[in-house]
Amino acid sequence: MLSRSLFLLTIASGLLLADPPMTRLRVEIRKAGNEKPVERASVIVRFVEGRSVVKLGKKIMTTYQMRTNQDGIASIPPIPQGKIQVQVIAKGFQTFGQIYDVAEEEKTIEIKLNDPQAQYSVHEDPKKN
Q: Does any domain span residue 25?
């Protein structure tokens, strides 16, 4: 009976110490109008939901920040599966941000950036222009 309990305890501890499932993420950034790649765009990927069983329920804090290459692609090292926030900042484009649910081993996220909108001011009268 003792050996059986010890065996079950060993299996349970092995499951607790197992690494969470990971995802290799690839982010492709394109211009919305003509599908041209946006190079040197800053891509921030933040893991936002999920808890580590090994660390007794503490949040998994994983954040990567990188830039796209000439083809508009940023490859992120493996991150835990769950909900991630992707934010893209590029000069001459609107800032993009969205939360994705990732459950695959490999995932490609395609993002289309829009041109910036005209700025509005409460101090100017729009009828005068």
A: yes
pLDDT, mean of residues 102-120: 91
Q: Residues 47, 80: contact at Cβ < 8 Å?
A: yes
Q: What is the CATH number of the domain that holds 43?
A: 2.60.40.1120
Give just the sign of the alpha carbon dihedral 122, 123, 127, 129: negative
Residue 29 domain flag: yes
CA atoms within 13 A on the CB side of 98: 10
Decide: helix, strand or coil at residue 76. strand
For residue range 60-76, list pLDDT tens digits in order. 668 899 999 999 999 99
Give bridge partners of residue 98 from the DSSP assignment.
86
The parent domain of residue 96 ranges over 21-113
Record the tokens describing residue 25, joined without a space.
């993420």
- The tens digit of pLDDT for each residue in 21-53 reads 888 999 999 999 898 999 999 999 998 876 445
Take residue 16 and report the two structure tokens written for it.
């607790």
The sheet with strand 22-31 has its strands ordered as 73-80, 22-31, 106-113
